[in-house]
Design goal:
Elements (H helix, E strand, L loop, with lengths): L2 E5 L15 E5 L3 H11 L10 H21 L6 E9 L2 E9 L5 E10 L6 H8 L11 H17 L6 E10 L4 E9 L5 E8 L5 H5 L12 H13 L3 E8 L8 E10 L3 E10 L3 E10 L8 E9 L2 E11 L6 E13 L3 E15 L5 E15 L2 E19 L8 E11 L9 E14 L2 E14 L41 E14 L2 E13 L7 E12 L2 E10 L10 E6 L4
Helix pairs in contact: 1-2, 3-4
């Protein structure tokens, strides 16, 4: 037996102050019956200073509310004894409830009729109705079944669907109930013509973002996907894609797309800091709509102590703008690390295609011209590098996911004599995962790389592998790990192997604590020295993304390395 004490709110907003609220005590029921009684009593108001006639009315309302609460769950003949008392200066209501014998389902008829009677989705809802003969009658399950059928029918184009039969017949004397529910689906409508209310872009381009075509069976998911694709395109400030169901005719339902174009020009400025690159200033200028064909370009400038760069990028949407586009890029980069100094000019063309399984495929052709100084030796080289890459990110949230993974794989190379000073083939693979554990999250990452080349010293710095840094092996400076020359100076290697495990947990507000263990190195030959680092960190979930502060110690450092390193980084978690 359980007792529920309910406080009945009796004050209206901005009402004068009054005595405390009255209470109701319920005995004799537990579980879902008690919970439902609580929900039904919540609307009853009674103030402690209410007159007797108002208290009598509240008592009658409480009895009826509990009766309805029990009936909804199949108990149609409860015995409810009630008491109304005044204790000191407030009213007290007590209800002693005997639920009695429940009503059970004795006959159940669930049916589909019309052209959609064989629809697999509707059949699955019927099969998983939650109703069965012999079961205690629960009107909530019956109502939920009706809502699921109606929602599915509307979402899949059965706009004329109606319930030809929907009733519950209860016989309290036999404690039995008969349920009959029959949905006549009517015809399934197809997508009709989409009315485009657009001005700044070619209608053919905008139509390319729609995932449905006229004549295809209507599906609300296709409407949602189309709207999401239009929003994500960056061409619009607002997007509204409507299903004009009231205008349906001849088996088709018309659509209407209304958009507000985004501002053509955008100027973004920013500043940041990372121990890998130092203080950074950024300037981005974008033209998000060069012409009606949807071409756009961006000019990017980044100034930092360790790495600065300027890039111009021009993007062209192709036949299917949702999945295909061509990017032309030109850029210059200057980098000055502990191990190398290099100046790089780049020209590139990349064809990007979103595959049906969610993977992003990139086919690229890049021209690289680089001057590098490594361990006091200067070398120059130019390379025409074709490449192919695949990447994908899956997460349960776009920012700060609790579970997810990402992968990026690339293969590239060049041939001497074909606009290249050296032949090589190179592959790179990086994988990140996030998994919930013990109220926090476990991060795992791995980065692998390999280069097939006759002489690694013939390749410039950007085509060699280095390790160390806030996003590599923590506890070691940025790109400070790798094969060394006879003087002990790091010169970069053919191969890369880096792994990391990290656990973070909520600390307070938007702050999280973390502990981690990293291991890896860049190398030329097996076996190689596996440099290891470990430490603790603080994470701030800022509005701009995660900001990480780590205190790391190298566990097997080379001679002369620091015992502790403070490292700061920003950027996505996957």
């Amino acid at each position: 037996m359980a007792i529920l004490m309910l406080t009945i709110a009796g004050a209206l907003p901005l009402a004068p102050a009054r005595a405390a609220d009255a209470t109701i005590a319920i005995e004799g029921i537990t579980g879902s019956l008690l919970d439902n009684a609580h929900a039904h009593l919540a609307a009853i108001t009674l103030a402690c200073d209410a007159p007797p006639w108002r208290a009598d009315s509240a008592l009658a309302q409480a009895r009826r509310a509990v009766g309805k609460a029990l009936a909804a769950l199949g108990y149609y003949r409860p015995e409810i004894a009630s008491q109304l008392n005044r204790d000191k200066s407030c009213w007290r209501i007590r209800l002693d409830v005997k639920a009695g014998k429940p009503v059970r389902i004795t006959a159940l008829k669930l049916d589909l009729a019309g052209p959609g009677r064989h629809d697999a989705g509707l059949r699955a809802i019927i099969d998983d109705s939650g109703l069965a003969t012999g079961q205690v009658l629960d009107q909530g399950r019956y109502s939920a079944l009706k809502q699921r059928l109606e929602a599915y029918a509307h979402e899949h184009g059965y706009f004329d669907a109606r319930f030809a039969e929907h009733r519950i017949l209860v016989d309290p004397t036999t404690h039995g109930a008969s349920i009959a529910l029959a949905l006549d689906t009517g015809p399934r409508y197809a997508f009709g013509r989409t009315q485009l209310d657009i001005h700044a872009l070619d209608p053919a381009l905008v139509s390319g973002f729609l995932t449905y075509r006229p004549g295809e069976p209507y599906n609300a998911n296709a409407v949602i996907e189309s709207q999401s694709a239009l929003v994500a395109s960056g061409y619009f400030d607002s997007v509204r894609l409507q299903t004009l169901s009231r205008e349906r005719a001849h088996g088709e339902v018309p659509m209407r797309l209304t958009t507000t174009p985004a501002r053509r020009y955008q100027l973004l400025t920013g500043a940041g800091y990372s121990t890998d690159t130092g203080p950074t200033l950024k300037l981005d200028f974008r033209n998000r709509r060069v012409n009606r064909a949807g071409h756009r370009y961006a000019l990017n400038l980044q100034l930092a102590r360790i790495q600065s760069q300027a890039t111009a990028r021009y993007e062209i949407p192709l036949a299917n703008p949702r999945t295909d586009w061509l990017t032309l890029e030109a850029g210059y980069q200057y980098q000055n690390t502990l191990t190398a100094q290099n100046r790089t000019w780049k020209l590139a063309a990349t064809r990007t295609h979103l595959l049906s399984d969610g993977w992003l495929r990139r086919l690229s052709l890049e021209y690289l011209n680089e001057n590098s100084t490594i361990a006091g030796e200067t070398l120059s080289g130019h390379f025409l590098i074709p490449g192919i890459g695949f990447s994908r990110t899956v997460a349960d949230a776009p920012v700060y996911p609790q579970r997810g993974w990402s992968a990026d794989a690339r293969l590239s190379g060049a041939a001497r004599g074909v606009v290249a000073t050296e032949s090589f083939v190179q592959t790179r693979l990086s994988v990140h995962t996030i998994t919930p554990l013990l109220g926090g999250r476990v991060f795992a990452r791995a980065a692998l790389g390999a280069t097939a080349v006759q002489d690694i010293n013939a390749l410039p710095a950007t085509l060699r592998f280095f390790a160390g840094g806030a996003r590599s092996v923590r506890g070691y400076a940025y790109q400070s790990l790798g094969p060394t020359d006879s003087q002990g100076v790091v010169v970069g290697g053919r191969y890369l192997a880096v792994g990391s495990l990290e656990f973070d947990h909520h600390l307070a507000g938007q702050f999280y604590w973390a502990m981690f263990y990293d291991a890896g190195n860049a190398f030329d030959n097996w076996p190689f020295t596996l440099r290891r680092g470990a430490g603790v960190g603080l994470r701030w979930h800022s509005p701009l993304g995660p900001i990480r502060l780590d205190i790391a110690t190298p566990l097997n450092p080379p001679p002369g390395a620091s015992r502790f390193v403070i490292q700061v980084s920003m950027g996505p978690e996957l």
